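FORM 7B - TANDEM STRUCTURE REPORT

SECTION 1: FIRST PROTEIN
SEQUENCE AND TOKENS:
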Amino acid sequence: MAETTFIHMTDLHVGNPAVVDDHLFSDTSATLTRVLELIATMDEKPKFIVASGDLTNRGDADSYRQLKSIMSATDLPVIYAIGNHDTRPGFYEGMFGRSSDLDMPYDHEHVIDGIHVITLDTTTPDQIGGSIEPDQFAWLARALDSHSELPKLIVAHHAPALGDTPPWDHWRTIEFGQSQQLATLLKGRNVLGILSGHIHHDRFSIWHGIPVIVGMGQHAATDILTTDILRMVEGASFGIGTIRSSGLTMALVPLPQTRRELNRYDLALLRQKQEAALAEASK
């Protein structure tokens, strides 16, 4: 097979310029504009862009209109996933002008340059962590069968849980049991990799034989040198993926950064918030 180059960006967190947002810690519109400018200088033009969720910071339709305006600078196909900062109604209205079926998961698939890209909506309304509903697993099984001969990329905002037991910080991942179910479904399916975001730091893993690529994104970086708090620092990057017959390579392009502290979260409070949302959803 011929080599295919693509771009992985994530956690764009684009804001509505008409609204002051205290939870937007950097000029994400300027960062995204700069990333697109850098992509345009590449000697080898990529075939497509993957944007793996948290496209906006507030999930309102006007923020998606701002995103569309910025992304109009590229003529590359863009494959969007949505994340926990996004909302399905805002996304559908702002990106597509859609006014019906606004609560439906945004699951979709595309074949580009011989690569079968399958995108899962792992968002759980009003929760931080990720999930995959039974109907989505059924859809994914059909999608995997639809082009069984082609190599595949899976795009999902939340990465699967990597360990052998449920993690204490379960809001960072797809729910543990569903992660295990996903691993079983993807086994032997020629999956080149899973492209994700959400945790705001670059991380590469091999999960049941599948590379899981998590990007830092374009908003802020998690300081992984600290564990008792969630410390956000200045930082952004995007990835250049290359697919060969031997598999997937991901090279990172970091933007200039100082690691200046932008914000802190108490992890205990974050855990309480997620567990309260899970308890409410189970009633």
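SECTION 2: SECOND PROTEIN
SEQUENCE AND TOKENS:
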Amino acid sequence: MNLRSSVPDSLEALPNARGGAVRTAELALAEALLAFEQQEESAVALLRASNALRSAGWLSAQRFADALVRLSPLAAGNAAGTGDARAAFRAALRDFRAALERHNLRELACSPLLFSHYRAVCIHLSEHTPGSSAAFEDLALAARPVPIASMPVRSADQLALLRARYERALLPVLRSQHDNGRTAVRAITDAALDDIDAVLAELAGPDPYDFWRLAQACAKALRVSGRAALDADGRRFYARCNLALGDHARGIERAPRSLVRATLALLWRDYALFGAAAEDAGQVEVLRDYGLTVDWHVAATQASEMLWEAGVAQAQAVSADLTSQTRDLGVLTVNAHAYEDFLQTADASIVALTDHARAAEQPEKADPGEALQASDAAYRLGAAACALGLGHAALLADALGLAWRRRAHAGVSAPAVRAHVMVEAPAVSTLEQSAEALRATLHKVAAGVAPPVSGDALAVLTRSIEQGGP
């Protein structure tokens, strides 16, 4: 059984048995669905759900809810063509409600099923509101900073040869959507994908923020999933890389921001949903360079997958028996045991971050290894906050981990590597202020108070990450 082969008409990842719940949003969605089925107004309930999700920091889910709010008047109307809008609205609302009750923030961000609904909703909106476009990264990377990716200078002749090879291989891949059932065509497509992989490997350089390194990792992830040529977003990725290669040949040194975001979201998708195995370590390192983390999961056999799923089911049963043992943090309701576990791990991480920030104030003692340890501490905290449902804290911790990661790369001292690395280190003051903001957030959580929105701190980190670069 392939862990990453999702069923098209179902939700993809396993539910998060110990994850926090936004009950206000769950109840509001149930109310909205009932009102819609009874042909009554549903926008007020949907808006209530959106506000609760924003308060909890479930920003991908909030974006989805906002799209439903905008479509609800059209879906409820009697104008011509509303039938299709009603069907799209009902299906999107039903599956969104089901996903929200699974308490898995990564699934809410990266679910292909939810994105297919989101795209359908935006298509209906665009008929009445020009500019209502939908991109997978809009959900997957909501509010996340994304660093600049470079395309370092290369010989024009070399780039011309590589692009010719790439374009020859690209055509069979783009045609494969019509012929994927034929064995001979599949063999041709696999050979073409091998050629594309070889070109991307030649293009990828040592700079951690070289766009072609990111593209190479994305292509590997698509091949592992088995959807490299069958997935519409995958084919679009390969086609856009061809255009980027043309830009590179014309001397452009930065990849388009929209392409970087789309490539990063596509790389993260399956790993966010299903975790990563040991053989995925290279792709996981690229994700961490861009501020994204995954869970490690090894399920090489059907038996191990069944065991994992049985463990999740048992955790859900235990959680159900402990429903009275919960804590409310504003709109978020968390399992008391998961909450205590989080506080213990979070305290160790924040102490480590503070110590690393103090050490970084002494430039003569700057150590890339120390910066990587600080990044890891922030990422551990972000992953734990995400699992508990603390969306704002998770976003801030991941952004801080990314800032420390960039500082580590900027501090690489080996001359053979340093000549290629084009990373500006975020200021120590920014790291310290962000760590303090994160500490204040955790103090609120420990006191049983709703954590604040990390808007200002996240904005400062985002500027330092997105404006620094080659």
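SECTION 3: OBSERVATIONS ON SECOND PROTEIN
The chain has a mean pLDDT of 86.
The domain at 322-466 is CATH 1.20.120 (Four Helix Bundle (Hemerythrin (Met), subunit A)).

SECTION 4: SIGNATURE
Preparer initials: ____
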